[in-house]
């Protein structure tokens, strides 16, 4: 029992250190995961409207939608209208996560992504199977740029199979190809 309380004490101290570190940072960097995806207004008009040919390619390729700023903003607006934007927000969070170089920041971001999207009853829980959830949890023991890869691929496949066809039929997309 002594070992358990010692390791819990160390873990607790580490979590306190991380939280203090967050508070001591500039305010905008302390809210890097949750708020940017929720409160930044989508302004597709700010980015260049795609050509008809480009927009038509989106029908068959979720990746083409995600790689285009206008497409991404339109797709996100569509998902918000359906109250199903958590999958896209998770995918974006994973893309941002892969760009982190610092192991400490990576661990911090991994914890935020897990708590926001993966854990049971998470505020924006994504629909992944237990097998994928277990792999992801094991990967988070030692966070690396690929920790969320399996879950991200599952969510990408789900968006491609389910959300993309609905998006293509929606007024959000139909307006682009008129």
TrEMBL record:
<dbReference type="GO" id="GO:0009968">
    <property type="term" value="P:negative regulation of signal transduction"/>
</dbReference>
<dbReference type="InterPro" id="IPR034956">
    <property type="entry name" value="RGS_RGS5"/>
</dbReference>
<protein>
    <recommendedName>
        <fullName>Regulator of G-protein signaling 5</fullName>
    </recommendedName>
</protein>
<dbReference type="InterPro" id="IPR024066">
    <property type="entry name" value="RGS_subdom1/3"/>
</dbReference>
<keyword id="KW-0472">Membrane</keyword>
<comment type="function">
    <text>Inhibits signal transduction by increasing the GTPase activity of G protein alpha subunits thereby driving them into their inactive GDP-bound form. Binds to G(i)-alpha and G(o)-alpha, but not to G(s)-alpha.</text>
</comment>
<dbReference type="Pfam" id="PF00615">
    <property type="entry name" value="RGS"/>
</dbReference>
<dbReference type="InterPro" id="IPR036305">
    <property type="entry name" value="RGS_sf"/>
</dbReference>
<dbReference type="InterPro" id="IPR044926">
    <property type="entry name" value="RGS_subdomain_2"/>
</dbReference>
<dbReference type="GO" id="GO:0005737">
    <property type="term" value="C:cytoplasm"/>
</dbReference>
<feature type="domain" description="RGS">
    <location>
        <begin position="61"/>
        <end position="177"/>
    </location>
</feature>
<dbReference type="InterPro" id="IPR016137">
    <property type="entry name" value="RGS"/>
</dbReference>
<dbReference type="GO" id="GO:0016020">
    <property type="term" value="C:membrane"/>
</dbReference>
<keyword id="KW-0734">Signal transduction inhibitor</keyword>
<keyword id="KW-0963">Cytoplasm</keyword>
